[in-house]
Design goal:
Helix content: 25-40%
Number of helices: 3
Number of strands: 4
Strand order of the largest sheet: 2-1-4-3
Largest sheet: 4 strands, antiparallel
Strand content: 25-35%
Structural class: alpha+beta
Radius of gyration: 32 Å
Distance between the termini: 91 Å
Order of helices and strands: HEEHHEE
Shape: rod-shaped
Length: 119
């Protein structure tokens, strides 16, 4: 019995002191949620031979389908300047579009902000 009282006499003050310490201040966690609006676009690329038998040329066409109609119109106008698909992809990258996926002749992009500047 003396041992139990002696152990309690030593342990009880330590437990009281352990509870009186202030807890460390918690730092606020950064939010992983991204609240900015994301726009998506699909670019379709097609090639076809145009002209007579002896004088055929390859005609490339680009069609754009995004959430913003004015962006589609701007890109349709500037698509005449594209020399190849790589040139089109580089141009879209300079406007802030990020290539997400490629499926055959369709290219899928996303953009957090839209720049409406013509190059």
């Amino acid at each position: 019995m003396k041992n139990v009282i002696l152990i309690m006499a030593l342990v009880l003050p330590l437990t009281i002191l352990a509870q009186t310490r202030p807890s460390p201040a918690k730092k606020p966690l950064k939010s992983e949620r991204n609240d900015k609006m994301v726009n998506y676009m699909e670019m379709t690329f097609s090639e076809e031979l145009v002209g007579k038998k002896g004088n055929k040329k390859v005609k490339t066409t680009y069609s754009f389908n995004s959430t913003e109609k004015r962006v589609d119109e701007m890109l349709e106008k500037s698509s005449d300047k594209f020399k190849s698909v790589v040139h089109a992809l580089n141009y879209l990258n300079s406007l802030g579009w990020e290539l997400i996926s490629v499926s055959g002749d369709k290219y899928y992009f996303k953009n957090g902000k839209i720049k409406l500047q013509a190059k």
